[in-house]
Amino acid sequence: MDHIDTVIIGAGVVGLAIAARLSQTRSVLVIDQMGQFGEHTSSRNSEVIHAGLYYAEHSLKARLCVRGKGLLYEHCKRFHVPVKQLGKILFARTNAEQDKLAAIEAQAKRNGVHDLTPLSRTQIADMAPGLRTSAALFSPSTGIIDSHQLMLSLVHQLEHAGGTLVCHTRFESAEQTASGFALRLNCDGEAFKLSCNTLINAGGLFAQDNAQRIAGLSKDQIPQSHLCRGQYFCYQGPHPFHHLIYPMPEQHGLGIHATLDMAGQLRFGPDTQFIDKLDYQVDAQAKARFVEAIQSYWPALDPERLHPDYAGIRPKLSREKGQDFVIEGKQHHQVEGLINLFGIESPGLTASLAIAEYVEAQL
Ligand SMILES: Cc1cc2nc3c(=O)[nH]c(=O)nc-3n(C[C@H](O)[C@H](O)[C@H](O)COP(=O)(O)OP(=O)(O)OC[C@H]3O[C@@H](n4cnc5c(N)ncnc54)[C@H](O)[C@@H]3O)c2cc1C
């Protein structure tokens, strides 16, 4: 049986970031069931580098987002990954929302984000003409990134260090051995066996399913998985925005906000909708809801120019309340050499390089 030090299940941005980092000191193989890296959540998101404003103090989301943001901007410079630090306008429309805005400002400070600045009415009118709002904050460290190029840079880092990415290869199961794991993989329809010392389950939406197939891992160490789809609509036509525009967050998402991609294309979303099975279709019927939400802050929206775009699916751990990332090693589940990553929803892209650091420290 072939042996490799570390096998990582999943070539999304998180698996690749971990692989790029660990390959500097050990032999690493990353496998993905799809034909290419990043075909699930990592290529179906807003591509926003988040500042780290909302998350509960000391949570992994807060710590890894703030740390990851800095690492990501440095990485982009070093590896020439396209990035734009556009900044974001976070706005409130009612008195109740102004209280929320003040609470977010305080939370951001507790998370170590000290660069938020209040915008006057004149500044709002200059920076986002036509935006209907009564108060706003500007977050200068928020940006956008080309996530495909980011993943490509991580693959290059991995391969440069002697590591390997193999696609069309599915993790089937793992048995514990004296020195690690015996893995059963399926490579393009053919069964394949491999042994490793360390196994990292960065399977995103499939992480729980993978964990079920790791012998020795107690079932109560595997959190429930809930799929929460986020749909986007793109806007084809002139618009006044040069920054990202965010209303107040909602229970499961950040509200239907406006982001720009690297080409300057404006898009709105994602919304939030729990679903029972993986389905990336955008429901054209959702347009009326989008129009209503957007016109509440940008009345000049022309509905004719709004078109269904794409959808991503958040790997949520609960339908009721927000949950932190779960990144668990031996200290939690007593399986030597295994790290499971569950619930890596937003800000997982921003946090990816910091997640890699955290995983390395756990090992
Ligand atoms: C709508 C939406 C918007 C978002 N916006 C942002 C944002 O603007 N900024 C931000 O920071 N974050 C954002 N996120 C979160 C971010 O996209 C994710 O946290 C990140 O992409 C997760 O990466 P991952 O590698 O964990 O998962 P994935 O990209 O899903 O990768 C997991 C991989 O594992 C593979 N895999 C699973 N099981 C197996 C198996 N058994 N065998 C082989 N391969 C397997 C899958 O094929 C997949 O490629 C958003 C998420 C969503 C859904």
TrEMBL record:
Q: Which residues form a coiled coil?
A: none
Q: Which Pfam families match?
A: DAO (PF01266)
Task: Report a single Gene Ontology molecular function.
Answer: (S)-2-hydroxyglutarate dehydrogenase activity
Q: What are the residue boundaries of the FAD dependent oxidoreductase domain, all occurrences included?
A: 5-359
Which keywords does this chain's UniProt record carry?
Answer: FAD, Flavoprotein, Oxidoreductase
Q: What are the required cofactors?
A: FAD
What is stated as this protein's family in its record?
Answer: Belongs to the L2HGDH family.
Q: What is this protein called?
A: FAD-dependent oxidoreductase
Q: Which organism is it from?
A: Pseudoalteromonas rubra
Lineage of origin: Bacteria, Pseudomonadati, Pseudomonadota, Gammaproteobacteria, Alteromonadales
